[in-house]
Design a protein that fits this description.
The structure is a single chain. Helix content is 51%, strand content 21%. The longest helix has 40 residues. The protein has 271 residues and is α+β, with helices and mostly antiparallel strands. The chain is built from seven helices and ten strands.
Length: 271
């Protein structure tokens, strides 16, 4: 009796395994599931299914080839999706930038590189003013300079911007003929100090946040000079500062688009 039961059990197991799906069928089922996931836009799960086929069903060469091809197509789909997203982001940034650029001109008249300069701060409009100028280029690099004009030298090296009990003091910039320079023409004296690489010490941010206030500027040197910053100068710094972030975002998006396009081109060449 025990022998008969054992024989029946073994026979049942043989039949059960014989009726189960073959490895070819299992690989085919996983491949079909991956196709459906791809069509639904669920690329990550589809890739997991395909990775399993390539890794665990290497004896099913035909299915592995199909899995690799579907994986390549999904990678193409992902890059195309990324390009679409980046294009959308670029349009958003460009739409945001357009109205802010209405008071800025792109010019190559004032140096070796093209710069964006506020209409009211062009040298021909401001050569005899004492003010703070916004400096911006197409890459989004931004800084300010203090520009003094008078009949006597004050030899200023730094500035303080303040309103009521709030103030911000820049770093002191030593005279070097480049970032702190002076020149004269008859009785007229000019002093220009550039506050690059964060040397403004937070003044730019302070002006941007308080642009609608009557901010005062102290030019600090051997002598001191005081001015109330004109509204259009405050706006030039505020807008130039904000534009700089948008320009950097645009540059980063364009770089990412180029990388994505290169990857997409490589995937398409793999056919």
């Amino acid at each position: 009796m025990d022998f008969t039961l054992r024989t029946i059990s073994i026979f049942s197991l043989v039949v059960l395994f014989a009726c189960g799906p073959s490895r070819l069928e299992e690989a085919g089922r996983r491949l079909e599931e991956a196709h459906k996931l791809r069509e639904a836009g669920n690329f990550n799960l589809a890739k997991l299914k395909l990775d399993t086929i390539i890794r665990e069903y290497d004896d099913q060469s035909e299915k592995v080839v199909l899995a690799r091809e579907l994986l390549r197509q999904i990678n193409i789909n992902e890059q195309e999706r990324s390009l679409h997203f980046l294009d959308s982001m670029l349009l958003v940034k460009e739409d945001l930038l357009a109205p802010m650029m209405r008071n800025f001109l792109l010019s190559d008249e004032y140096g070796t590189e093209k710069i964006l300069i506020h209409r009211r701060q062009r040298p021909e409009n401001s050569f005899n003013r004492t003010f703070l100028r916004a400096h911006l280029n197409e890459a989004g690099d931004f800084f300010i300079s203090s520009r003094y004009h008078g009949t006597n030298w004050i030899n200023h090296r730094q500035i303080r911007v303040y309103i009521r009990d709030q103030s911000v003091l820049s770093e002191a910039i030593p005279e070097d003929g480049f970032n702190n320079r002076r020149f004269e023409d008859g009785q007229d004296k000019w002093e220009i100090v550039n506050y690059k690489d964060g040397k403004d010490n937070g003044i730019i941010d302070f002006i941007a946040k308080n642009w609608n206030e009557p901010l005062r500027v102290q030019f600090i040197g051997q002598r001191h000079e005081y001015i109330i910053l004109e509204q259009f100068d405050r706006e030039a710094i505020r807008d130039g500062y904000e534009i700089s972030f948008i320009l950097k975002d645009i540059r980063e998006i364009k770089n990412e688009k180029q990388k994505t396009q290169n990857t997409l081109n490589e995937l398409r060449r793999e056919r």
